Predict the 3D structure of the following.
Amino acid sequence: MNNPSVFLLAVHNHQPVGNFSSVFEKAFEDCYRPFLRELHKHPAIKFAAHYSGPLLEYMGEKEPECLDILKDMVASGQVELLGGGFYEPILTILPEEDRQGQLRMMNEFLEDNFQIRPRGIWLTERVWEPTLPKTLARAGIEYTLLDEEHFHYAGIQNLYAYYITEDEGYPLKIFPIDKKLRYLIPFQTLPDIESYLEEIKAQNGLAILGDDGEKFGLWPGTKKWVYEEGWLAKFLSFLEEKNIQTQTYSEVIDRRPPAGRVYLPPASYEEMMEWVLEPEDAAFFKRLKDENPAEARRYLRGGFFREFFLKYLESNHLHKRMIMISRKVNRTSNEAARKELYKGQGNDPLWHGVFGGLYLPHLREAAYDHLLKADALVPSESGWHIGDYDQDARAEAIWQGRTFGLLLKPAFGGSLVEIDHFPLSRNLMDVLSRRKEAYHVRQLSQPNGKGKSIHELAKELPAGSENFIRCDRHPRYSALDHFLHPETTLEKFQTAAYDEQGDFIDQPYDIRVHEPILRLHREGHVLVAGEKIPVCVQKEIEPQGQEIMIRYMIRNLADKTTHLKFGSEWNFYQIAEEIAVSQNEVRLCGGRIRFEVFPRPEIWHFALQTLSQSEKGYDIIHQGFCLLPWWSVTLSGGEEFRAQFSLRDHRGT
Amino acid sequence: MNNPSVFLLAVHNHQPVGNFSSVFEKAFEDCYRPFLRELHKHPAIKFAAHYSGPLLEYMGEKEPECLDILKDMVASGQVELLGGGFYEPILTILPEEDRQGQLRMMNEFLEDNFQIRPRGIWLTERVWEPTLPKTLARAGIEYTLLDEEHFHYAGIQNLYAYYITEDEGYPLKIFPIDKKLRYLIPFQTLPDIESYLEEIKAQNGLAILGDDGEKFGLWPGTKKWVYEEGWLAKFLSFLEEKNIQTQTYSEVIDRRPPAGRVYLPPASYEEMMEWVLEPEDAAFFKRLKDENPAEARRYLRGGFFREFFLKYLESNHLHKRMIMISRKVNRTSNEAARKELYKGQGNDPLWHGVFGGLYLPHLREAAYDHLLKADALVPSESGWHIGDYDQDARAEAIWQGRTFGLLLKPAFGGSLVEIDHFPLSRNLMDVLSRRKEAYHVRQLSQPNGKGKSIHELAKELPAGSENFIRCDRHPRYSALDHFLHPETTLEKFQTAAYDEQGDFIDQPYDIRVHEPILRLHREGHVLVAGEKIPVCVQKEIEPQGQEIMIRYMIRNLADKTTHLKFGSEWNFYQIAEEIAVSQNEVRLCGGRIRFEVFPRPEIWHFALQTLSQSEKGYDIIHQGFCLLPWWSVTLSGGEEFRAQFSLRDHRGT
């Protein structure tokens, strides 16, 4: 047979909700616009394109030219648009109702703007679980693209073809994305690409490429290479001259049957399934892959996406809060709330690897912003609610007013895990703890940086990094009750180089509700001069309109006098310009919110900073501020020390 | 701490729908009844018990004593009953509606008979997918038991504890079943068991055992050991004397929090995930596990249950037919049909390992019996339907009348894959092809049988086995169009030691419907004396009330005379007593159904037999009969040969 080469291209374009508008502008300027213009000049070259909701909305407002080109190419049949969850959520971790809603929102947008119904979707981060076919079939979707890795896990040899699977009898067609093509395009020369396409053609196969559109101009160095030096124009002419057939994915489905049936276990692309592992586990797993023959990759499987909720408590919290708000919103028909909910479901702030935005405060901020707007749009019941919002089989305490919202973990130090300020639509406690990352270790042990993958090129660990790769001793919650050694200094505290003298930080507190007061109570011990002194900590939390009062009572349960250095740790998501610390008052959010402490304490405070990797290198990122108001007190047997905290909205609702 | 040992026992008791009543009788006599009697004498020993629906229904009818003992122990709090899908289906492969229905049926049965609502379930074959928590939460279920393997896959070290997971925010608690305890109990002596329980106690852990109740009397040798030699009585006294605390699973949940959160990928017990693999793959996978360190088992994962649908076409067909009938039934409120559907959803005939009933014709027969009853209870639309019932992206043709039902695969030789006879509620084509199994290979290469696991002890390959471990050249469908070499003999045909001369068997046929006729048409080639002769095969299928007519037309498309040896292969699920072959007539089902062929052919016929393993050894199983009516014909250029088949119900509906 002498069939022509068949080359299938899908470009996936995405910017997360909450990304800086300068990034959107630059992305269109350097990448999305020139890409569309170039393809428009080659009307015979068919391809599939996916634009996530934030890009589609932005195009409608700011990039009419792009939208017009796209409409033209869709109308002519040059472009097949792919659907997906509108705000680019990981579908498998969303409530089914929201999956349908997000898919429908995209279907309707494409129908309204392009007069088409998508037959395929771009699956966010290709996070696959075997129950997706039913979800997608319900939304009218026939196919998607996955990675080679998914197919390796099922022992499939021929990746130059597409397959079919099912769940509960609902079918889905799946195209495996060719990893080699992803590395060839647009980085290599045309002869290299041609010889690989020849290889695929010799097997009468399909050359299947699905990849990030940002590779065509936005990734470092690609603008020059792809446009200024003309790689893309040359590549498109090459396709035409060599008579390489381009087809849309739907055309392929309509023209040839699948190569076979498959059942794929949960997977994503190879790197993602390493990123989700703890550093030592990831290293061990990589070694296993290196040391075993290639055929072993069917059985050697990494972590799966849900495990990010174990690795990063902050990701888990965002996810479980989203589900809590989703249930509330889905009990109503409030469409404005639903749209805010969907905007808060984007994948980016939930994970971290080379990409992924967990470490990026502005993406987390945007997620909370939209979720809290959704939350505020649907009335809450008044008073305290005790329930297990995050499925850890421990009760949490939740309170929501017009100004503030609180979420406490009695089982973990009676601490606050979220303080919402609804007028600013902001989770004031949205900070990130410092934790060990795989690249911290690797970098320190291989300072010459040899043998790195393409993802790690050109990265240099910044000077003084050792200060940022210390691990926090506990999650950066608030109202964490410290008993410090007399010699613990701010520096030691800040660098996590101290020993906790009490057993309160992460231990369970009893709770009792006397509306409007929540009382947290624990009898524990403090090590004082080598002796374990029984101590009781009681915290009363009383929301009062625009103010939250927190009353502490520390009692010496021993029958003799003791000296205690007690502090209550608070962590706030604030940039330097927003916060001002004075003697017993901290102004937050540029003065709008005041955090006051009585009696007058010492206040240690310092910036929370993390060191993380991105596609450009290593970033030191300001995550917020830690405040530790503390007192040295001497208590005789049975004596109490009392302190009071207040968090007040100065402007009102 | 000096906490007592805590020992959690769960016994799972199950006999599949359709198992011989003699097996039920023996199981109660040797196992279920003596077990309950013995436990009843030790009211302080708490445990959990699961009885699948078929056993509960049988108990109600035939074993009132067992039911009374059980009621008494449930009322006293000694026994916690576990729920589950009523007829022991694999939940993950059922439509969600039926999962809920089967779980609800069990809940209601337990409520009606024992006045309790189960809080936990026994998960059939522990076939887990990460979306089950939502399914189970909807049915009011709080916990289940899984295997160590599930937890190894998630990197969990401490297996002497329970965990919590979630899906879409719905929680589920999970207990890991201790594999070592499964091997100790009831097979080892009390000191061995005691020392292991001590080991667990030293870690302040839970000793968690969940296992088949049949180990206590029904497995080979256990009746003597467990009851006659008194192992069980001694073990229960031992628990009492050593003051080992037994608790129900619900008590544990109510008394202590889970050890942590987990997300588990799809899994079942270790052996199941090997059985689902093709023989060479299973061998390779086992080698990988042997050659890598123990820590690698987190990443070394076998197949998952759905892959049985790839390994065994017969399992896939039964599953997809079930889904087809489920959809039909679930569009109605016909409760009788729904109950038959559920009865046809049992796990046993869908898989094979050491256990599993795919190779057992009476279990497959029972599944089709109930599914076809469900099918017949809901009216079908008349005429031919073209659709993809099994999600292979190829159209099938389906026809259903009062007497017969037909299912054809035009894309695979225009063959019949199912012939239903509704009055007898029987799929006449329910045969099993011979295929390579892992133990065929192992057995032949290791005739001394050394180094076998406990599952394989005492197995001897029967004499003459080589005749049964040949692989069939194609699935045993019907109306398969053979062109034979003049020298192909019955023996060669039977042993699959022949070469097909035509390209019709597994190739696509065009279809056209002219109600009530379905016309299948293919122009292909036959190799005759080294030359490829173009030949057309046309089959017309015409259902006529109680009769199905099949008219063949074979045309020589060449312009010269050729000799063809043409046969149409039919495979029927019949035992020897039911079938009688005469010159051009075959009587099926004891004469009720007649299969006639004109003009008078030669008819080759032989029994279809398989060699499979079970817990008792190797079984040679009669799966049905193969019939090949054939003709030697000489056709001049353009000439046709015509033949006619008729399948008729002699008694009428």
The longest helix of chain A spans residues 21-40. Chain A touches chain B through 52 residues (CB under 8 Å). Residues 438-649 of chain A form a domain with the Beta-galactosidase; Chain A, domain 5 fold (CATH 2.70.98.10). Confidence is low (pLDDT under 50) at residues 444-458 of chain A.
